[in-house]
Amino acid sequence: MSLNVPQTLEAEIDELITHYPEKRSASVMLLHAIQEHFGYVSKEAIEWIASKLELKPINVYELVTFYPMFRQEPAGKYVVKVCRTLSCALGGSGKLHGHICSKLGLDSRKHGLQTASDGKFSVEFVECLASCGTAPVMMINDDFYEGVSHERADEIMGKCQ
Amino acid sequence: MPEEFRLILKKADEPGYTPDIDCYMSHGGYESLKKALAIQPKEIEDGKTKTPQEQIRDEVMTSGLRGRGGAGFSCGLKWSFVDRRSGKPIYLICNADESEPGTFKDRQIIHKDPHQLVEGMIISAFANDVNLAYIYIRGEFPNGAKLLNKALNEAREKGFLGKNILGSGFDLEIHVHRGAGAYICGEETGLIESLEGKRAYPRIKPPFFPAVLGLYMCPTIVNNVETLCAVRHIIEMGGAEYAKLGTPRNTGTRIVSLSGQVKKPGYYEIEVGKVTLGELIFHENFGGGLREGRSLKAVIPGGSSAKVLKAGEKFNMKRPNKDGEMESVEVDMLDIPYDFDSLMAAGTMSGSSAIIVMDDSVDIVDVLANVSAFYAHESCGQCTPCREGSLWMSKALNRLTSGKGRKEDAEYLTHIATNIQGRTICAFGEASSWPVLSFVKKFKDEFEAKGAAVQPAEGEPNKEGAATAAK
Questions:
Q1: What is the pTM of this model?
Q2: I need a surface site. Which of B70, B123, B171, B365 has the fewest CB within 10 A?
Q3: ipTM of the assembly?
Q4: Which residues of A touch B101 (CB under 8 A)?
Q5: What is the pLDDT at residue B455?
């Protein structure tokens, strides 16, 4: 099965490649573009990127397994990332993560990204999101939320349709 | 009275200030760039001349600016190491990977005043004959990347980027490159590998000093966001004037990120060394003190890699007396001036200027377990002592926090940490072992108490059951 990359996305990707004197440099940016479009990085996507950049698939695969933001399985429509690191932990992020997990019927002790059974939300307890002064913080897809109480988390997630 | 001194963040929080170019230019933006590009070659003795580029580099050297990313290395010196005779292109990379736990200063600049960074970069690129530059921004700032791309497009439209910038004959292109969640990309050689499209495995130095063998094995400068912004101000006010801010050897301003258990966490820009650690935590102009009824337990003064300071700790420091002679005085940890050298003298560091405050409600073993879990997760895996050791330390700490600890775990942790530091390619080895070494040394009784709380019966392996019974 090959990857069906729409023309507009391929044009965007071709433009990205021109930013670098060496094509290989574009690999992480291409992985972002592909994951944003398809929701995850499939085996076919890895092969597609490798051939685009004149690399071996392993050169791309080793990036997918190294950089925490890339996933090889589809995730929910909304990916919730709660910050786990010290300042947020002191600000109650453990409880916030626990609250969100129990709300979605997930086990907060599990590592990595987990997706709720309805497929709408995925949750991950991630490392520092660099907003330690407004702990606890979380992201939903590209949007960022500060000083998140349990009530506020409920409200924000309620608006995700 | 200790006060904020806003230079870099002067405009960012003004009501109505927006990140677009019109707002930036109506506040004097890109004037420093015009000034830099208008500098004429200057005649010096023996009929020699100094190029405009050399003059800018001199100003930066005179300013005393030290890198704001963590190491505090002289920016002027860093630039002076660049191999300008190799015939290869020279690259400039802005390190916007802000990922040291506790740090959120570059986030403010990127999101509120991106053009200030762009202007600082264009000037720095001009001063170093750079024609292609990158902003390496952490993956978790997707909106920051969009804002920077917008800012770069606006700058291109106004002729501040591209070919023949403002008729000067200088060409420059800047691109935004996103990371993808790996802390190690903040290490400059790891960042370079990552920008080359590889795993961010740091390179060994020597021989891979970026100034000589950096991006694509070409001379490369990697500077932090705040450092590059400071360059813009150095050109505006002159290196000598900039050096009057702050204290000797610790010049200029720094944005301090204050978090943890204080009343008013946030970012505060100060003249370096003019405010003490205690003032930053307790003064009403800064952190405003602890929550009601709480007392101070510990402070991490420079991001989670820095060695912890225990409340009440005293240090011997050299201070000038009233006759101007240096003498050794005892200084409480709260009275340490917040600068590079004083914190180093106290055996720790100002790092990325991120202060994390802990009051007496925290369990110090829990805190270290949290920090160590971070390093175990973020080790790139290249060097065995770090890859294995960071995980062993994290496991031992988890054992302690879950009631399955052993009395000898404190010793064990110190033993592992000692065997990581100095035995790895990059400073991550130190970053992961320094918290462990300092926490265990300064709070040894708490680690031992945790380890002694549950002991397996003689001849019995330490099992789940023992922990449950103790609860």
A1: 0.95
A2: B171
A3: 0.97
A4: 85-87, 127-128, 132
A5: 59
